[in-house]
Automatic annotation (TrEMBL), chain A:
InterPro entries tied to this protein: AAA+_ATPase, ABC_transporter-like_ATP-bd, ABC_transporter-like_CS, ABC_transpr_LolD-like, MacB-like_ATP-bd, P-loop_NTPase
Classification of source organism: Bacteria, Pseudomonadati, Myxococcota, Myxococcia, Myxococcales
Superkingdom classification of source: Bacteria
Span of domain ABC transporter: 11-245
Species the sequence originates in: Myxococcus xanthus
GO molecular function: ATP binding; ATP hydrolysis activity; transmembrane transporter activity
Protein name stated in the entry: ABC transporter ATP-binding protein
Entry annotated with the keyword ATP-binding: yes
A Pfam family that the UniProt record links to this protein: ABC_tran
Cellular component, GO, one term: plasma membrane
UniProt cross-references to Gene3D superfamilies, sorted A to Z: P-loop containing nucleotide triphosphate hydrolases (3.40.50.300)
From TrEMBL, chain B:
Transmembrane portions of the chain: 20-39, 298-319, 340-373, 393-415
Biological process (GO), any one: lipoprotein localization to outer membrane
Protein name in UniProt: ABC transporter permease
Keyword Iron-sulfur recorded: no
Domain ABC3 transporter permease C-terminal per the UniProt entry, residue ranges: 298-425
Pfam families, per database record: FtsX
Length: 247, 433
């Protein structure tokens, strides 16, 4: 989906800083980052290791809090929300895809995908079943609904994670290096799937990656370096910059 | 919620060895608790059955009569009128009997013993037939005056058989020595401490020995339809007998023979009534129950501490292993309370399964012990008032033991579960290990 299709801002980050304290040393992870993400965008966050990609995603995902600045997600200032409200925001507005899939090993594929719906308590059993099976169809795992995660390949597990992230129909999906643990073909399939869902459902995707191929699918690439916002460029420009060795 | 149970259940299944070890420990403690409770209840039931037949009713209306200020006799004078009033005032009454009470010397040709004596009307004592196991002679022999029932150990010490005579010697209320000859008509199996110091003779023989009138009894033993009514009946009788003009002594929860010193010291003369219950009359041996219950409590406490440390440790390991899972679940929208519940459920399930197995094993063991009629050493028999081990296991005590241990294991799990729930999602998600 084109970013101009909707101009409403789903993520708004203003002068955000994040410091980590390691013993007596304070390590700045983000140093005054500004970022605006509109609904329906498919954005990649790029940068070398230690540039602050994961920290930024954590702040947007409300799993961590900023040291300074303002983080707004779906119009809400995350600093003003209680722990319970933040959890509800994550449950109802944000979907997560993790680098190492992070599925619950003792639950089946169906149960893993259904889990966020159970937490929401909005749908009855039949509606939940329909929603989960529909998503499993979309990610091509309808026949594996009863399998446990350890019976699946890495790519299949990540597809389950994608289905779990999307099952609540969130406005925003955050993916932290979703293809890092996958081979290139499987990684490509996952990105294609995310792109397809972005275009079909209008879900906003923000993902971090090192991979130029993966980056090439993004509407825009936000580049970070040493915890600072470097620039926001197109995927083509990002690829050229990477080819030139400019991270 | 069901999903949380499912996760808890499957996690237990995934870590089978750990679950089996900890579940086994919980099961062992539960089995031990069921067995000890069975032993305690069995002892209590044996005591109740033996005591309420041999020496006390559920409620007793007894008393002391003092001719002079310094000499008391354990008698109730004019008992028929009192009994009539009791029958009117106590609708809970099943039946009542009068017993003579005394302390005398039994002399045979070769030996003598000091014992307490119960004067009974054998025809109106249905309970005695059920409890006494007659080894020689016949209980109905006590219908004749001048007869006596001894217990095995006494007969052995006196070296007498059924049909042989002994002499009963006692002091009358006025201090004169008196004797009667009595023929041994029955020898009963020993019944612990209560049978060590007691014999039975017909009421008439006892009255003759002590030179009591026919309307004098040692105590009126009241047996209720439901033993739960003891406190109510006891309180009511205090009131109604006082209202009827009798002097009723303050409640003193001791056996009658332990009150002589106190009563003899008091300056009054005449008749005073003493209303007691079965627990008061055998209070001198119920310390064994208290001791057993205390021992059970200490043992279970120590074992629960060990189990508690085990459960805490196991949950710590589980939480450490599943820190990333906790982070993920928190990230996708699980509230802290649900994370807490997830781990509490795990401990709850472990507790339920462990206690169920333990209670079943304990029950089977108790039933097996009862079926085998295991004989206990004499010194133990004295206290449990039975020569065989009786483990009384009731459904309520099994459910109680299960609920107690499950509640303990669940409560213990709250600390690590709470700390798991407090983990910040980002910290948990990036946990390594």
């Amino acid at each position: 989906m084109n970013p101009t299709a909707s101009q409403s801002s789903i993520v708004s980050i203003t002068n955000v800083t994040k410091d980590y304290t390691l013993g007596k040393v304070v390590v700045p992870a983000l140093r005054g980052v500004d970022l605006e993400v509109h609904a329906g965008e498919f954005i990649s966050i790029a940068g070398p290791s230690g540039s602050g990609k994961t920290t930024l995603l954590n702040l947007i995902g409300c799993v961590d809090t900023a040291t300074g600045g303002v983080v707004r997600v779906a119009g809400q200032d995350t600093k003003q929300l209680t722990e319970r409200q933040l959890t509800n925001l994550r449950l109802n507005t944000i979907g997560f895809i993790f680098q190492s899939f992070n599925l619950v090993q003792v639950l089946s594929v169906f149960q893993n995908v259904e889990f966020p719906l159970l937490l929401q308590r909005k749908l009855d059993k039949a509606q939940r079943r329909e929603r989960v099976m529909q998503l499993l169809e979309q990610v091509g795992l309808a026949n594996h609904a009863k399998h446990r995660p350890n019976e699946l390949s890495g790519g299949q597990r990540q597809r389950v994670a994608v289905a779990r992230a999307l099952v609540t129909r969130p406005q925003l999906v955050l993916a932290d290096e979703p293809t890092a643990n996958l081979d290139s073909v499987t990684g490509q399939n996952i990105i294609d799937l995310m792109k397809e869902l972005n275009q079909k459902e209008g879900t906003t995707f923000i993902f971090s990656t090192h991979d130029a191929k993966v980056m090439s699918h993004a509407n825009a690439v936000v580049r970070l370096a040493d915890g600072k916002f470097l620039d926001r460029i197109s995927a083509a420009e990002a690829s050229r910059a990477m080819a030139a060795g400019d991270h | 919620m069901l999903q949380l149970f499912l996760i808890a259940f499957r996690n237990l299944g995934t870590h089978r060895r750990r679950t089996l070890l900890l579940g086994g420990a919980i099961a062992s403690v539960t089995a031990l608790l069921v067995i000890l409770m069975g032993l305690s209840t069995g002892m209590k039931e044996s005591m109740l059955r033996s005591a309420t037949t041999l020496s006390t009713g559920h409620v007793n209306v007894a008393g002391f009569y003092k001719v002079t200020a310094g000499q008391a006799a354990p008698v109730v004078t004019g008992y028929p009128a009192i009994l009539e009033q009791i029958r009117k005032d106590v609708p809970e009454l099943d039946f009542a009997v009068q017993r003579g009470r005394g302390w005398l010397k039994v002399v045979s040709e070769t030996s003598s013993i000091q014992v307490g004596v119960g004067g009974i009307d054998i025809q109106s004592e249905p309970g005695l037939r059920q409890v006494l196991q007659i080894r020689a002679g016949a209980l109905d022999g006590l219908a004749e005056p001048g007869t006596v029932l001894l217990f095995e150990k006494q007969a052995k010490k006196l070296n007498v058989q059924v049909g042989e005579s002994v002499t009963l010697a006692a002091q009358t209320l006025r201090g004169a020595s008196n004797t009667v000859d009595a023929r041994v008509v029955a020898i009963a199996a020993d019944m612990g401490m209560l049978s060590d110091f007691g014999i039975f003779v017909p009421s008439e023989t006892l009255r003759s020995l002590y030179q009591f009138k026919s309307d004098t009894a040692g105590a009126l033993l009241l047996y209720l339809k439901d033993i739960q009514h003891v406190p109510v009946v006891q309180a009511r009788l205090r009131q109604t007998l006082t209202d009827a003009g009798h002097t009723v002594m303050d409640h003193d929860p001791r056996a009658f023979f332990m009150k002589f010193e106190t009563v003899n010291r008091e300056a009054w003369t005449g008749q005073r009534l003493d209303i007691t219950n079965w627990e008061d009359e055998i209070s001198f041996i119920t310390w064994t129950l208290t001791a057993l219950n205390s021992l059970t409590g200490v043992l279970i406490f120590v074992l629960m501490v060990i189990i508690g440390v085990g459960i805490m440790n196991t949950l710590w390991i589980a939480i450490r292993e599943r820190t990333r899972e906790i982070g993920t679940l928190r990230a996708i929208g699980m509230q802290r309370t649900r994370v807490l519940l997830m781990f509490v459920f795990e401990a709850l399930l472990l507790g339920l399964l462990g206690t169920l197995a333990g209670a079943s094993a304990g029950l089977v063991l108790c039933l097996a012990v009862n079926a085998m009629a295991v004989h206990v050493p004499e010194v133990v028999a004295v206290f449990i008032m039975s020569d065989t081990l009786n483990l009384a296991v009731h459904p309520s005590s099994i459910v109680g033991a299960m609920a107690f241990i499950t509640a303990c294991t669940t409560a213990i799990s709250l600390i690590p579960s709470f700390l798991a729930a407090r983990l910040k999602p980002v910290t948990a998600m990036h946990h390594i290990g």
